[in-house]
Amino acid sequence: MSALAASIPREEWHAREPRVLENTGKLLALFEQFDVRGTFFVLGWVAERYPQLVRDIDARGHEVACHGFSHRLVYEQSRAEFRAETLRAKSVLEDITGRVVQGYRAASYSIVRDSLWALDVLVELGFVYDSSIFPVRHDRYGIPDAERMPHRMSTPSGASIVEWPLATAKILGCRVPVAGGGYFRLLPYWLTHWGLASINRKESQPFIFYLHPWEIDPGQPRVATSPLSRFRHYTNLKRCEARLRRLLGDFRFGTAYESLGKLGLLPDTVMTR
Fold it and tell me: Mind giving me the DSSP string for 21-85?
């Protein structure tokens, strides 16, 4: 989505063809086929307009977590703006599901070194885990020397929150992103499989894998944008669903909250309110 942000202003979102319902429905059916339960980081803007979609996700046993409200990058907001947007999104999701939202992921992994203050806001709002830090170098996100595995970390004010970084594998001492999304579409399948398997087997850790609903929609309209953004957004859309089916058969998956609980990183938290 961020790759097309310059071409599709937020004020025009409502005028675009809504493909999120069909695409998310395809993912839900696919997960049902493979008996997979996962975590959906839902945008508040989407939840407000399509509350039944959020109810469907919840009813099928998936975890509903927060992806902010309008997909604004954290480091482009003031602390007050970020707090207001995040609270609005969290409240919408909780009103729809009747469950406490425990997890958060920033738009485009935009909790970076200069925006770590956002973790304090998340703690203030009652989140128990975050999955926004990508321990790689990138032009828009990343903390290259951040811890790679799920852990409890201190916020700038001295509070505590659980962080589940996006998955990276180690090759000759270098970190290779194998977390999903564009990396899943652009890199060969064997590399993603090898990287995720190495996290499981060599490091005895779970990995976190992500995918956007639009990434299994090769028929989506093409938007005029920069060559780099076009490459990042549209490459290998036709291959993505088949790769995802293969991945779901090759690994076992569960929700982020359940997995962190098995690692002993989470307190006993009531999931309803």
Answer: HHHHHHHHHHHHHTT---EEEE-HHHHHH-HHHHHHHHHTTPEEEE--SS---GGGS-HHHHHHH
Query: Which residues does 86 contact at the CB level (< 8 Å), separation at least 6?
Result: 66, 68, 69, 104, 121, 122, 125
Distance of alpha carbon 270 from alpha carbon 187, whole angstroms: 39
Could you give the C-alpha distances from 273 to 8, 37, 237, in angstroms and in order?
37, 22, 39
Q: Which pLDDT score, from 0 to 100, does residue 138 have? A: 87
- Is 267 strand, coil or helix? coil
pLDDT beyond 90 at 105? yes
Retrieve residue 2's tokens: 């961020």
**What number of residues does the chain have?**
273
- pLDDT of amino acid 211: 96
CA–CA separation, 214 and 220 (whole Å):
8
Q: Name which of 37, 53, 129, 131 is nearest 92 in CA terms.
A: 53
Q: Calculate the CA dihedral of residues 67, 71, 77, 80 and round it to 10 degrees.
A: -50
pLDDT digits (tens, 9 = 90+) for 174-212: 899 999 999 999 999 999 999 999 999 999 999 999 999
Look up tokens 């973790």; give the residue: 119
pTM assigned to the model: 0.90
On the question of pLDDT at 271 being above 50, the answer is no
In the prediction, which pLDDT does 270 show? Answer: 43
The answer to whether the Cα torsion of 29, 35, 37, 41 is positive or negative is negative
